[in-house]
């Protein structure tokens, strides 16, 4: 199908730079997710690739050809909009037919293609319905169908699931993932939902204020966040971050870290931190263990029982709040004292500038990276 | 108790509503009735409530002037002025609604402000321009004037309607390969059709009722129905019955038309107010 390459793309709008030089090479058949908080520029970047926004500077290449000044339809990209943006005055068939008709495709060919796509998306019974007569999930399918019939080189999705309820969103997520495997089209997908990003992406691009914070596979981002922003953004519940000071560094690479009442020694790779510097200690809620012999003491303030897991919000003796993820069978209630230990090999360490320091521990699937 | 009071209040409101409606409708009713009186009945004070209706005034009106000539002028001028106004204002409103620049807002306000000018203020220049271009007493002249004077209103209305159309739908059209022309004709216009229709209707009514320019810029060839009515006042004194008959004839087509398109008009004018 197609490769997409962004070379130092910039977007300036009313003297303000929104996209500040983004470079990225997307390989054929790859599923790339742009994720970031609202206003980070992810939708703007997608619209620049679509051709709906002008590119202020830099080059956009699809299949090696510069398409900065090419009309959207001639770029060979199709887009699914957040609001679906179906044509309300046309039935489902006409909605899917519109682009084919404009492209001058013969009637028989149009009919065959729409028939195929309708079968894949189970839309056959609704072909003569208007969008207004369809449910949210069905409209979503029509929007996807409208993109598929064109047989585009690249699919663009702009937060396509955010208007659906939670159950349907989960279902559509799986459908989209399997559709991607089936069609094998290069896909760029924008979302603010990191669950969507984690579950669907081959690679995730974390954006913040118009710059790339990190690009990597979902597990890379989760286990090796490059900086505090990514650490904070990826993972739910979010990583616990405590202001810390590195006291000493042993010859075997153990960093003695003090964060308030918490004292841990973290295995680091060489070239790591220097003794005496300030930084941030990060630990994910699932890596904090409840341990009656634990050195860290605190008080449970809230216990959120999600069924399979329980999230304990704990106030440490030094007043800091942390979240601990534990099993669904946990019985701790609010206002009970608790003792904890940190899985030291799972701790993250960030320097004063918020950049992560290399660490020893890793996820088994990441070892070959 | 409370229910009887509500019902009482409803009754009062209903009567009040009818009273106001009749009060406002009265001049039209009176005109309509007077058209069927003979001249002495028409000017008698106190007016005769009961009279033997006669078509003599209508006969006189038809005998003196060629009604169909004026009526044709009215139809041709109103329809063409409206069509041209729409042809000009649809692209204008599109540009202002979807490709606004830093001065779009001011342009819109300025356009509207021209509508607040009393037409008589520009009578002399317009008259001279019309004479210089040979457009005096021509349908084309009135079409141009009507089209131009209604443009601020049609552009504003269409602008408002277009703003209600979700932009992503137009963008989807662009992604699907629609040219600007196809985007407007195949996506935007079908979606804004109620708005375009009511804009057209309003323009039609305004053109039909326009009197100032038609009186000043036409005499016989291009004169529409408003001139036809006026011709029954002045010279030989006032003939109320004949004047009323002529007015009824002039007003009837647009009233019937307005009545028939009432639903469309209301729907268009309240478009977006209720989702």
Automatic annotation (TrEMBL), chain A:
GO molecular function, one term: ATP hydrolysis activity
Keyword Transport: yes
Membrane-crossing residue ranges in chain numbering: none
Origin: domain of life: Bacteria
Database matches in SMART domains: AAA (SM00382)
SUPFAM superfamilies cross-referenced by the UniProt entry: MOP-like, P-loop containing nucleoside triphosphate hydrolases
One GO cellular component, as annotated: ATP-binding cassette (ABC) transporter complex, substrate-binding subunit-containing
InterPro entries: AAA+_ATPase (IPR003593), ABC_transporter-like_ATP-bd (IPR003439), ABC_transporter-like_CS (IPR017871), ABC_transpr_MalK-like (IPR015855), ABC_transpr_MalK/UgpC-like (IPR047641), Mo/tungstate-bd_C_term_dom (IPR008995), NA-bd_OB-fold (IPR012340), P-loop_NTPase (IPR027417)
Pfam families to which the protein is assigned, alphabetical: ABC_tran, TOBE_2
Keyword Nucleotide-binding: yes
Keywords: ATP-binding, Nucleotide-binding, Transport
Family: Belongs to the ABC transporter superfamily.
Name by which UniProt lists this protein: sn-glycerol-3-phosphate ABC transporter ATP-binding protein UgpC
Annotated source species: Komagataeibacter rhaeticus
Name of encoding gene: ugpC
From TrEMBL, chain B:
Domain of life: Bacteria
Membrane topology qualifier: Multi-pass membrane protein
CDD domains documented for this protein: TM_PBP2 (cd06261)
Record localization: Cell membrane
GO process terms (BP): transmembrane transport
InterPro entries: BP-dep_ABC_trans_perm, MetI-like, MetI-like_sf
Entry's transmembrane regions: 12-33, 75-96, 108-130, 142-162, 183-206, 239-260
Cellular component GO terms held in the UniProt record: plasma membrane
Signal peptide limits: none
Major subcellular site: membrane
Keywords annotated in UniProt: Cell membrane, Membrane, Transmembrane, Transmembrane helix, Transport
One Pfam family of this chain: BPD_transp_1
Keyword Cell membrane carried by entry: yes
UniProt record similarity statement: Belongs to the binding-protein-dependent transport system permease family.
Name this polypeptide is given: Carbohydrate ABC transporter permease
Native species: Komagataeibacter rhaeticus
